[in-house]
Amino acid sequence: MKLAGIDFGKRLILAPMAEITDGAFRKISKKFGCGLTFTQMVSAEGILNNNFNTLRYLAFSQDEKPIGVQILGNDPAILSAAVRELTRFKPDVIDLNSGCPVARVAGKQMGASLMEQPELLAKLVSSMVKAAGNIPVSVKFRLGRDAKNISIIESAKIAEDNGASFITVHFRTMESPYEEEPDFKWLDRIKEKVSIPIVVNGSIFSVNDALRLKEKLNADGLMIARGALGNPFIFKRFNKIIDGEDDPGKPSAEEISRTLFEHLNLLKDEFGEFNALDKAKKHAVWYWMRSDGAGELLKKIFSAKDWKALTGILTKHAEKTAKNQFPREDIDLIQKKFRKKILFWLLD
Question: Which of these three, 191, 210, 242, is where a domain ends?
Answer without folding.
Answer: 242
